[in-house]
Amino acid sequence: MSRSWLLCGMKPLQGSTHFSLGNQKVEKRMGCQQSLQSSEVLKVRTIYINDPLKNTFCTNSISTTKYSKWSFLPRYLYLQFSKAANAFFLFITILQQIPGVSPIGQYTTLLPLLVILAISGIKEVVEDYKRYMADKVVNSKTTSVFRQNSWHVIKWHEVNVGDIVKTLNEEFLPADMILISSSEPQSMCYVATANLDGETNLKIRQASLEVAGIIKEGQLVNLDGKIECEEPDRQFNNFVGTLYLRGKSPISVGPDQMLLRGTQLKNTQWIIGVVIYTGFETKLMQNSVKSPLKRSQVEKVTNMQILILLLLLFVISAVSCVGATIWNKMYLENIWYMGISGITPHNHVFDILVFIILYHNLVPISLLLTLETVKFIQAQFINWDEDMHYEQNDLYAMARTSNLNEELGQVKYLFSDKTGTLTCNTMAFKKCTIAGIIYGNHSDNTDDGNENLSRASFCEFNDPKLLENFEDGHPSSEYIKEFLTLLCVCHTVIPERCGNDILYQASSPDEAALVKGAKKLGFVFTTRTPYSVTIEVMTETHTFEILNILEFSSNRKRMSIIVRTPAGHLRLYCKGADTVIYERLSKDSLFVEDTLKHLEIFATEGLRTLCIAYTDLTETEYQDWLQEYKKASAVSQNRIQRLEECYEIIEKEFLLLGATAIEDRLQANVPETISTLLKANIKIWVLTGDKQETAVNIAFSCKLISSTTPRIYLNADSFEAAQQTINHNCGDLGNLLGKENDLALIIDGETLKYALRFEIQKKFLDLALSCRAVLCCRLSPLQKAEIVDLVKKHEEAITLAVGDGANDVGMIRMAHVGVGISGNEGMQATNNSDYSIAQFRYLEKLLLVHGTWNYFRVTKCILYSFYKNVVLYIIGLWFSFVNGFSGQIIFEHWCISLYNVIFTSLPPLTLGIFEKCCSQKSLLEYPQLYTVFQTGEMFNTKVFWIQCINALIHSFILFWFPTKMLEHDMILRHGYTTDYLFLGNFIYSYVVVTVCLKAGLETTSWNRFSHVAIWGSIISWILFFSVYSFFWPIFSVAPEMTGQINMVLSCPHFWMGFLLVPTTCLIQNFFWKLIKNTYKRGLLEEIQELESRKDSILEHSEIFEKRMTAASLAVSFSTQPCEIFFRDDSVDLSAPHGYAFSQTEGAVVTQEELVRAYDTAKMENSRISKRSSDFSEIF
Amino acid sequence: PGGTTKTRRPDNTAFKQQRLPAWQPFLTAGTVLPTFFIIGLIFIPIGIGIFVTSNNIREIEIDYTGIEPSSPCNKCLSPVETPCICTINFTLEKSFEGNVFMYYGLSNFYQNHRRYVKSRDDSQLNGDRSALLNPSKECEPYRRNEDKPIAPCGAIANSMFNDTLELFLVANESDPTLMLIPLKRRGIAWWTDKNVKFRNPPGTESLKERFKDTTHPVNWLKPVYELDPEDEDNNGFINEDFIVWMRTAALPTFRKLYRLIERKNDLHPTLPAGRYYLNITYNYPVHSFDGRKRMILSTVSWMGGKNPFLGIAYITIGSISFLLGVVLLVINHKYRNSSNTADITI
């Protein structure tokens, strides 16, 4: 057992087994040289720095292809024949080779089977080639590596373990590395890990100072040594290793020195690292398991029906076999003309094989191919769709699998990631309230249409009133100055001068937004030295001495900074959550009420709010406190707690200045899309790794919950507490449990761990399903997958997960349908998804239009394929009744096997490709239509068997009518008599006509292809019949067909039957369709009718609206405010709080250390030289 | 970037964007109600026409199996008497006009049995010389006899119908002279069968020469080239009786065309009303498998022989359609009255 198994196995969570299974698969697939030389027990990997010959590990190239050149044929055949249907036809083909068994020739099944295998083989090759090309793009990205004493630019796949790699700002890391040096002070660097864990804030990594020192002193050439570390595993935050440099004492390295593949370097000019894990052994790839084969619900139902049909086939064969036995007993001995006496009679096994071959086509051989083709083209339609084309990045939607097209039409639960999916992951300082006056409120209304996007990126805070008030000596002018000063001073941002412009680097996007916002308003933060910050206000520079930083933590929900102002006063600036600030306001504080009101407005809009307050300190007060503080800092145990207690002492008597509102920008049209999807009766759950406050804010801003929605917070720190809260809430809901209520459930990852325990998970799910919106925060990737799994297991509904980062991969794979948001640099989510789209809003079209259409098409196509096969092949059974169950067929062999290949191959295709239940416009305008398909009433076992019984009736009519017509054999003008095939050709022609017309009856949208398919199929049969009748004796096939065409077409009975028989079959279908369309209509029929009378829409729209609302009421959620009396204190009925703030916590480098580390005034020159000389100093 | 966008952008065709013009018919009772009546109005007259036509066809069927002890052919059931000749008399109530067709009919004879159907060699019948001497395995057990290939091989050929039927008109009740009705042996097989599908082995020699080294089917009394003693060109594989037999029937009860009775040029009916004798040379055994043998005389109309089924079917379907129309009309009327919404109005 390698370490990774152990880790996985240790996890008590359910999903872990699933993942570890996947992991095994990956390991097996890698086939790279694991370092097996290391002993079984220790599992230590030794890496020799910059000595590629000694390191024999896996290469850094990745491959996600299914086949290789050599494995293609065996693997492909294996996959194909592991499909039940294909295996069945292979079995039939083999049976047909036994001499004398097959009543329909030897190769009549082999040929269609070969055609089908060839076509899907081509499709596989094309798809795999695409994957290969995508891998190639990744593998051939370039990076710099230090080899032979100089830097070489090489491709990613050439990177080896032990290489020294240099990565520049904004670049992605090519492999897992140990950081040994960086451009920043104290060898720090920032990495964006959103791709891996979905967190918005940047992570700080720091090289061991000993190592950094060595490198600064010497040169890379002299870097000689080895790293001992554990074998690769899948834990992002787990790493233990030791660095042995020649002549130095061992240095231990941990996760803080580790840079992972898939993360992006930010705010750091360059870093240098030693590669430790490559390719499939990187943590990122370890976490990627081969996508499980997803089958759609429709496919599962179909497979089930195929199995039942197979069973039925055996039953029919057995019945026929019994019939044959009885018939043989009764007649065979006395029948002299058959010449049986000379031959031993066949045994039952032989007989039953004959009948199985005779009836085997009940299972449509072409169905799989037809479906593959149909789905492939449906997928192309998704790929081609201009409405899902994101023009800014020139990204089209992409269907990465075509198996699940119809599943898109039945989604009931949507699990969405937040960061990067709902939001753009950019923060903007949008509004503020200062001294009871709200600013920045007007800008929203002007946003519209296409301008929205381009404007929004600039449109931050722009309310000229603020500056006017400030400059014109408005009474609040002093407050404004103080407010903006605070924004400039109280933070941990590092300024970086870039030409004339100043860039800010921050691990907290909120702070960056605030500082940028202040800069726009003329308060420019310019320089940070270890003990001061300098700001520029209206060309004046003010330098604040920074005395103390009272750090942010999510418990404290605030951060403060103690400064000595330029005037020499001591002042404490604080920003934080409204709740914590309001507790600490002094009695003299003004604007308390107004600000609170404004905060509520901000919160309802989903803005992230921070309250801004300050307090002046006296010299003695500060000195006293400083003593305390020093004591606390010196404590070795519980230092953080002691420090926080100490902060508490001085953070009091605040004077409120106002509040800021930061917009975590949503992607375009997210609220509209969400409201449409809600109307379509899709339940939306937000699963995020981010903080609870952030998630709630986003839920507000995307209108998932409104300010009146009661919020149930499940935050418990023990199993008992979680159980109690859940039980209480379930109890309070009473009868409403299980129904949809206007409630929001908010749960964090910790509590979820308890809630997912077997004992209460059902209760929890019940509670969650009773809420209109569910927000799950602080989730690990695994938990996301677990939630999806929970819903998937307990609810008979289709789930869809949408996300953009590597942390969403689990749920994307777990859900029935996984959708990846592409465009953000990381491709993890996209690569593991079934569909990728560029923007969340495209889900609307993907689900409502493509999903609905595809579902409608696929189900029709399947039902029709079964119908047509049952119609033709059950005729063999009817004929058996009159031919002594001998297995004789009434048609010519090749006509039978070409039935699915030529004569009726097109109608299912056009049904599957072009059929439309109604137009795109209607589908988008009336999302309620989606519910028609969601329920799966279009396709289930019942519908399937109704269709089969219908086919049975048709085949009965199709056999017995012509048989009766020809009963007396004298049907030709010249008195000629006929043979069995003459009757067969009658029946066959009628079958083709009936089946094609039935397709016509099923078609609701006739385009030119439908016409070609339906009329063309009939004509193709007649043409084939004509030509085929002249084959013998030129080609040695079908002697019995000779002359049939002349006789059949010149027979008046044929034409009489041509009119009669199909009419007889279809008149009942026609009648039922009318009844359905007229009297038993649902929403779909209403809209279809509306569309068919385009000219009269105006008069009808009013009636229509009325009916629509009536219909939609039935399906949409109740919007009345909730009348439930909640007793549990977990329920928050109050107005929303908008507080949210992201900041790195508990990192290697504390916020204080970080701030103290930079001296941008000094750094200015050295940095420029660093950049220009391209690292020369460290050689 | 403009260039790259263009190459990546799929052409924005109606097909790709799924905006092909389409006709979306929506069938409601209101719009297509007349269809049912139209179908009814078309089908019922057609049905009546066909029914009347079929009823006007003259047809007589004589069972000569001889099961009943009173039947003249009863004696032929015992295998002792060979050859057995029996005579059945019958009366035509009405005269048969135009061409009259004479059929033999067999019942309970499974010509459509799989083993029977495949027991032939079409290459041999097409005159292929190698197949003539080496017939297909499908013909077993009638492939070879006494080390000689059978021509024609197989069970179908072996069981060829070999009764001889002759028809005599009792010209005058008082005067028992019998008038032999001339029966035409040729023109009873499909043209393609006679000219394309069945061919004698090629050669200029006599048929007997061409069939040398083969033997006749086990149950036959004479070889294939002597089937028609009267007409040299009607022998071998292209013997029309043989060809007709070789088209295996679809049902266990079937008829095969036996002879033609051509209409006379004068005004006399082809078969005037009166008494007839059917003279049977009874060779073909059907008793063992409970079969029946019949002789049928029939005239034909433009659509063949007598068969009331099609007419009745047309009338029935037409009526059902009409009835469905009425049902829809009633429902439609009721529905419109009871429903508040007026969305059925056209």
TrEMBL record, chain B:
One of its GO terms (biological process) is protein localization to endosome. It is a multi-pass membrane protein. Its main location: membrane. It is found in: Apical cell membrane; Cytoplasmic vesicle, Secretory vesicle membrane; Golgi apparatus; Membrane. One of its GO terms (molecular function) is aminophospholipid flippase activity. It comes from the Eukaryota. Keywords: Cell membrane, Cytoplasmic vesicle, Disulfide bond, Glycoprotein, Golgi apparatus, Lipid transport, Membrane, Transmembrane, Transmembrane helix, Transport. The chain crosses the membrane at residues 26-52, 309-331. One of its GO terms (cellular component) is Golgi apparatus. Belongs to the CDC50/LEM3 family. This is Cell cycle control protein. It comes from Ictidomys tridecemlineatus (Thirteen-lined ground squirrel).
